[in-house]
Every structure is written in C-alpha cells, then in structure tokens.
C-alpha cells in the first residue's frame, strides 16, 4: 500500500541545447501539413517536438494546428498524436498523464519517462478551455506540458476575435466601419501571468516566441524535465489573420518582443527570470515604438495616430506601472499611493 501511494513516474532529463549547433538534427514534425506559408504556429509545433524528442505523446485541440496538420491520410507528426476537443487541452494532458501513470504503476507497461504535451490555440486555451488548464496546473503529481499557441484569433474558422486578440484588431467579428473605427475595444488577457500568479504549486510557466528558437526549445525542455504540470504561452505571427507578407513572420516575432508588447520570461518555482531582449528592456534598453510592429500588419491598417498613441500608452503602463513589469498587472504601491493622494 505504501508503495502505491509513493509511486512517481520520472521525467526525462532534457539538458538545454547550448547553442544552435548543439540542436539535434532529427525532426518529429515533418512534411505533410497544409498550414499557410509563413505560419509560425507550424514552426512552434516543429520546435516543440524537436525539443521533446521521440518519447513524446502530443495531444492537440481543434484549431489550425489540428485541421491543417491532419488532413485525411496525411500528417507531419512522427510521434503519437491525438486530437482532443476544442476546450479540452487541460483534460487531455491530465488524463493522458494519469493514464500512463496508472498503467506503469500496475505494471501493464514499462515504467519509463514519457513526455505528454497538449497544445491549444488562444481560442481553445485562453477562452474555452481556461478552466481545464487551470485545474490541470493544480495536479502536481502528474507530469505534462500545456502549450498555448497564440495566433491572436480563432484562425481556423476564419479569424474571429478571441480574448487574446489585440486591441483594435480587424477580425471577421470586429471589422472597422465608417461610423465606428475600433470595434474590438478589450485589452488582451495576460495568460502566462495569470497562470503563474494563480497556481502556486505549478513549478514552471514561461512565454516563448519561435523567432528565438533555441530559447524556445530550451524552455520546452525545462518544462518537461522539472516534473508536474507546466504551462508555456507562445506568440505566433499568423500571415493570414494578421494580414502581412509571409516573409515578415520572423521579424514580427522579434518586433513583438522589442516593442515590449510580448515579454519573454519564465517563472520557475516562483522565481521570475526575464530573457533576451526583454531582459535588456528591464535593464534599461529603450523599447521600440509599437507603431513599428502594428503598421506592418493589415489588421491595424485603419489605426489613426490617436489609436497608435492609446496602444503605446497601454504598453508603457505595463512597463512603468505594473508591480512586476510585463508580468503582474497590480499597480505598484507608489503608483497606487499617488493615485489615492490625487483623489
Ligand atoms: C466546441 C466547439 N466550438 C466551436 C468549434 C469550431 N471551431 C473549430 S476550430 C475553431 C477555432 C479555434 O481557435 P483557436 O483555438 O485560437 O485555434 P486556431 O484556429 O487559431 O489555430 C473553432 C471555433 C469546435 N470545433 N468546437
Ligand atoms: S491561418 Fe494562421 S495559424 Fe492558421 S495555418 Fe494559416 S498562418 Fe497558420
Ligand atoms: Mg488562435
């Protein structure tokens, strides 16, 4: 009985790739998909499973990365892969991990480390499946990773607005009109910050962007090594939904970081570490103006100077007033005091 309660399944120890030349050559997401040219989410899938290696099970919720990757009789997945319902990435990750653990505990399969990764889009993860992801992140006895690939819309069903679509973006549910220019007036959810702050026993939460591929893969490797449930949020430029030339995907990823719109960080056992150009910004490097990022995309083509100034002010606020810049949105105490004093 004591043995039953103490059974734990080990994780693989995936050391970080120390530079691009050390990255393994094998691919586990290859040809056979039908994503758009320049699709960064497809690159995220490729890097994610390259980082995890062959002893991996991938579960994918409905969305572009399901539909375009598993057309009948063709698939790029070399590892075992299973579709799960749109809002179910959390349940799929937890259930698969628990199932493997039970089979190993009963001696029905060999006890060995197997990576379980469930991915979801922003619609499936940050909107519909938020509750399931949250529940999974509280189950510290199961090893799994949930990776949210964020193309900032319900892309697969023709670019509808999601809780992760940026302010003012032109989507099929928020087209600018002559009378009302800005149809989508909500600021984007802070998904990784919410997961890190709200799940004290979840050991690993990170943000990534495929423009920084080695860093991204190393965060996936860390998430799978540390044990327990982990969460990664990836920002993925989407040529179709964001309306730009596919050759700009990489550059737009970089600009999202350099403008400070999408900070790169990880929270491991409650300790925050900024990465790359985000770290440089925290240490004083000036951020690029948000207009350099926004005006390269057709979804913001209707923006006036006033809209650009509003967007810039919101990003400035995130860096200058948040308790933890770019991560925790509570206002700093001195800012709060000043606000109280001014009343
Ligand atoms: C419960 C449910 N509602 C609606 C749909 C239709 N649907 C399929 S994919 C999709 C968009 C998902 O958006 P997201 O999760 O952001 O992934 P993306 O398509 O952007 O990759 C929708 C609404 C569905 N499959 N299941
Ligand atoms: S619509 Fe966007 S996310 Fe979907 S396949 Fe095309 S580029 Fe990728
Ligand atoms: Mg999406």
Q: Topology of this protein?
A:
Layout: H1 2-6, H2 40-52, E1 56-61, H3 64-67, E2 81-84, H4 89-105, E3 115-121, H5 122-128, H6 130-136, E4 144-150, H7 191-198, E5 204-208, H8 213-226, E6 229-235, H9 239-242, H10 249-258, E7 265-268, E8 271-274, H11 276-282, H12 291-294, H13 305-320, E9 322-324, E10 328-331, H14 333-341
Parallel strand pairs: 1-2, 1-3, 3-4, 4-6, 5-6
Antiparallel strand pairs: 5-7, 7-8, 9-10
The structure holds thiamine diphosphate (TPP), iron/sulfur cluster and magnesium ion.
Can you describe this structure?
It is built from 14 helices and ten strands. It is globular, with a radius of gyration of 20 Å. The protein has helices at 2-6, 40-52, 64-67, 89-105, 122-128, 130-136, 191-198, 213-226, 239-242, 249-258, 276-282, 291-294, 305-320, 333-341, and strands spanning 56-61, 81-84, 115-121, 144-150, 204-208, 229-235, 265-268, 271-274, 322-324, 328-331. It has 343 residues and is of the alpha/beta class. The strands form two sheets. Strands 2-1-3-4-6-5-7-8 form an eight-stranded mixed beta sheet, with helices on both faces. A two-stranded antiparallel sheet has the order 9-10.
Feature tags:
single chain; 343 residues; alpha/beta; eight-stranded mixed beta sheet; two-stranded antiparallel sheet; globular; binds thiamine diphosphate; binds iron/sulfur cluster; binds magnesium ion
Biggest sheet character: 8 strands, mixed
Shape: globular
The number of E-state strands comes to 10
- Average pLDDT over all residues: 95
Bound molecules: thiamine diphosphate, iron/sulfur cluster, magnesium ion
Radius of gyration: 20 Å
Strand content: 5-15%
The percent of residues in helical segments reads 25-40%
Question: Span from first to last CA?
Answer: 63 Å
How is the largest sheet built, in terms of strand order? 2-1-3-4-6-5-7-8
Identify low-pLDDT runs: none
What is the helix/strand order?
HHEHEHEHHEHEHEHHEEHHHEEH
Number of helices: 14
SS-based class: alpha/beta
């Amino acid at each position: 009985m004591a043995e039953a309660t103490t059974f734990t399944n080990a994780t693989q120890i995936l050391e970080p790739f120390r530079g691009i030349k050390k990255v393994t050559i094998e691919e586990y997401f290859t040809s056979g998909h039908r994503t758009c040219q320049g699709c960064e989410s497809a690159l995220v899938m490729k890097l994610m499973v390259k980082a995890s290696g062959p002893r991996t099970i991938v579960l994918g919720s409905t969305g572009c990365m399901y539909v375009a990757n598993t057309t009948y009789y063709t698939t790029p997945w070399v590892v075992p892969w299973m579709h799960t319902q749109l809002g179910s990435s959390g349940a799929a990750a937890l259930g698969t991990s628990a199932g493997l653990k039970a089979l190993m505990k009963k001696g029905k399969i060999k006890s060995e480390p197997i990576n379980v990764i469930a991915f979801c889009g922003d619609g499936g993860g940050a909107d519909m499946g938020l509750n399931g992801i949250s529940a999974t992140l509280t189950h510290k006895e199961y090893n799994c990773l949930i990776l949210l690939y964020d193309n900032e819309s319900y892309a697969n069903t023709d670019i509808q607005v999601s809780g992760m679509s940026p302010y003012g973006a032109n989507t099929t549910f928020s087209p600018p009109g002559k009378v009302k220019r800005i149809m989508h007036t909500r600021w984007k959810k802070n998904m990784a910050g919410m997961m890190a702050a709200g799940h004290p026993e979840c050991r690993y939460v990170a943000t990534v962007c495929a423009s920084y591929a080695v860093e991204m893969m190393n965060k996936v490797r860390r998430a799978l090594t540390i044990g327990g449930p982990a969460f990664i949020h990836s920002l993925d430029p989407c040529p179709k939904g964001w309306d730009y030339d596919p050759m700009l995907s990489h550059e737009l990823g970089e600009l999202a970081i350099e403008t400070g719109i999408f900070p790169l960080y990880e929270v491991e056992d409650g300790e925050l570490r900024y990465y790359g150009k985000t770290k440089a910004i925290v240490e004083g490097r000036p951020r690029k103006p948000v207009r350099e990022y926004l005006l390269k995309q057709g979804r913001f083509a209707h923006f006036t100077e006033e809209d650009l100034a509003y967007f810039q002010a919101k990003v400035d606020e995130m860096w200058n007033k948040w308790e933890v810049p770019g991560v925790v949105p509570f206002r700093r105490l001195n800012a709060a005091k000043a606000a109280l004093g001014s009343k």
